[in-house]
Every structure is written in C-alpha cells, then in structure tokens.
Amino acid sequence: MKYTNIFKYLIASAALVFTGCEDLEEKPVGLLAPESIFKSTTDVETSIFGAYGLIATESLYGRQYVSALMLRSDMVDIGDRGTPAERQQVNDFNMDDNNGMLIKFWPYWYRVISAANASIAGAESLGLSEAEVNPLIAEARFIRAFSYFHLVQLFGDIPYVDYFVTNPSAVKEISKTPEATVYSGIIADLEYAKQWLPDHQPASVRARATKGTAGAYLASVHLTRQDYAQAYTEAKWVIDNKDRFGYGLVDDFQTLFKAPQANDLKEHIFHIDFLGLQNGSSGANDDIMPPMTGVRGADAPRSGWSVLVPSMKVYNDWDSRDYRKKVSFVDSIMIGGVMKPYTDFPNTPRPHIAKYAEYAGNSNTEGRYSDQNYSAFRYAEVLLIAAEALAETSGATAEAVGYVNQIRARARNWAGTTTTFPENVPTGLSKADFINLVMDERRLELAFEYKRWFDIKRRKLGDVAFKGVNSTEIHENFDANRDYLMPLPSVELQVNPNLAPQNPGY
After folding, report:
1. Peptide bond into 260 cis (omega under 30)
2. Where are the domains of the chain?
3. Are 413 and 253 in contact (CB under 8 A)?
4. Across the chain, what does the average pLDDT equal?
5. Which part of the chain is the RagB/SusD domain (predicted)?
C-alpha cells in the first residue's frame, strides 16, 4: 500500500524523531503507543528539540521554503536564469502542482507537525503534574502552530491533524480542513503556549519559544485574520512586557545579520539556529541561503550562485541615505582580488542581497553551513504590527506613529554615527496614508526576511506589486484568482483523492 507524504510522516512521528527512520513508502510502522516511547520529561524534551531541528533543514529554513517565499514576493527576482526551472516557475507565477520546491517543503512541514504531536502525546502519557508537563506541551503546541501558520497562509484549506497517530488506518483517508478551522487550532495552540510557556528559556536562548514568542505570533495571526483589535492587544502586551522578556531593538541594524549572532539577542523573539560547518542527513542544519543570495564569481568566502537577486528597481527605489539599504545589499565585492561594482558582477550585474552572505560566519567558501541565527520574528515587527493594527481601529494616533518612529530612530544610527534619515513620520496623515506608510516600512525594515509575500497576500496587493510600470518586479500574468495560493502537490491528490479539489487555477 502506498501512502501520501503527509501520511508517512504522521504515522512515523516518534520514529523519525528518535531514530531518523525515513523509508516508509511501503513499510508503515505498526501501532504506536506514546507510553512505549516516552519514559520521562527528558524524552519529551528530546522530541521537541528534534522538531526544532527539522525546521533548520534544507527543505525549510535552509533553502526550499524560504526561497519560495522570497521568489513569490516583489522584492526578489531570479538572477541566474540557468537555475532550475522549479525556481523560475515560483518566481514567474507559472508553477504547477508538480513543482520541485513545493514537493520538498510541503511534506517536511508535516514532519515537524508529527514530531510536535508525538511530543504532546508523550508528555500527556507520563501522568505527571501540570507544572511538570504543561510547559513542554505548550512548547510542542507552539511548534505545531508555527508550522500550520506557515502552511495555511500558502495553501488555504489543508489537512489538519492535531493528535499523535497510533493507528495508520485513522489517517489513510485524511481530507482537508477549512482554513478558518485551521486558524482556530493555531490560535488555541498559541493561547495555550502563552499561558504555560516560561518567560525565559535557559540562558534566554531565542531558538526556543517563550510566553513572549507566543504573544508575538498571536499578534501576527490576528493581523493576518484582519482581527485588528486583537492583533493590537497582543502586540501591545508584548511591548508592555518587553523588559520582562528582555526584548528591544539592537542599536546597530547590522548586528542582526552578522553571524554568529548572540543566542540571546534582544531583538530576536524567535530565531532558527544553524550551527556553523555542521550538517546531517536529509539536509539537517544545511543552510544554503548565503550561496543562494551571494555573488557568482566573487572571491571566497563571499562567492555564491546569484539565484535570489532583487530587481534594479528594488535597489534604485530605496533611498541611499537609509542605513538599512547599506546593510541589506552588496553593491561591490572582491572579484579576482579587485573590488568591483555591481555593474561588473559576472552573470547577474545587479546589487545582491547582503543580509545572509555578507557575514555568514563559520561556513564553507560559499557561506554554506553558516552559523546564522535566522530571525523568524523580531521585536521591530511587533512594533509594526501594533502600529498597523492600531491605525486600522483608531487611525494615525500618536501611539501608532510612535511605534514607527522607534524603528526609524534606530535606522538613523549609521554604524554608530547619528544621521537625519529617515525622518520621523509626519503628523496629520490620514488613516489610509499612514497604513500605506507602515506597509512600506515593513517592506524595507523586513526586506528579504520572508515576510513580504505574506504582506502582499493579506493586503491583496498583487495587482499593485506585479503589474504596471510602478511595480518593482513586473509579472503581468499575476492572477489574483489563482496566485494568492499555491497548488497542493499533485502526488498528494493522486494518492488521496479526498484532498480534492485542487486550489483554483491549477
């Protein structure tokens, strides 16, 4: 009997975490019992660490998933057109349901989810007090919410499994769950996490979730759902408790993108931790974003493949007085021992993304296997969520404007030298103008950090972002009736017809 990729990972969640078993196409495991696998809270914690580790893999934050988000946005284009067609399809809005990137990251998210479900069931099977197990359950539920939040934004209705699978027959005909129901599950998980997670993890490491992490993601989920009052409430709670959680803006924007970053960097609310020059099976700890964004033909250790490269308009439209532009781009580099401007870059003569390749830290000659702590959520984003959500309910209030001004004040610190740009937000803006300003501030502040596509989708900005002479990356074939969602993988639909219908237009 053949099973879907989702099914393989769901029925083998515990085995995958503890043994790394993957060959499950024709050999599904038998009935699993949590009490036979989990004997102590240490076992549960090991399973949770395994789930975190699955996020830091080539299929997800190491390349495939995050590359797809970048290419889907209006901030990143294909550089070297000799790159595999699967990337060009995602970028050019002509992907199909057999896209190579899609079929790699889709099942891997379910692998993370299965590990989280195993951890929850394992903790519950121990029969210990709430104080002993609920923080671990909360951490696993955060990971599950994190995974489903990424999936539901790309695909809409998706299979939603929130239990440890002990009987293969229980999920062999799994069907899709409505998007609204998936979001309800995400919110419930995050609220539980906010209740039971600690204020700080050991050594205040930001690669594990805390109460503050859960609150920040609740703000983001409610913003995505256009529940602006609740988004503001959650963001304001994080802001009001920033000292309790140790949050704040770092003084120098460059610090955020200079590996190795501190594990307790105060601006990081949640980060994905890669370990320099280490890797394992199935793409474990394989960070390929530095070479994907690096300059092909440049001298080591900053050479790369020129795959993910912004259009010239993205670079030209960004005011050069903004320190964040300097940090975000590399527009000159050593080639053959000589400093060359971007006009002389081989293959793709455009400025490249610097956030990941410029300071990859302990890595190979192309920046691969870096020791970056990739920010999945920064305190700056909490401020921007609060500003946007408050503006939606109350207009451009002094409080909302103040949140943006905090970010602009940091941007005026040019590596220790105070400048005058960007200026504070002008007073008297209309609600619409201020929200547009916040969206552009997000575009610049969070440039190349995997956020822009989700902003385009939730604000339905596709026709503005991709059509007409004012767009930064022209794709006149963008279709709002199709392209706000990606297709479900064809292999899943072929094996399990219950997942039909396919998303519109594919």
Report:
1. yes
2. 275-371
3. yes
4. 93
5. 351-506
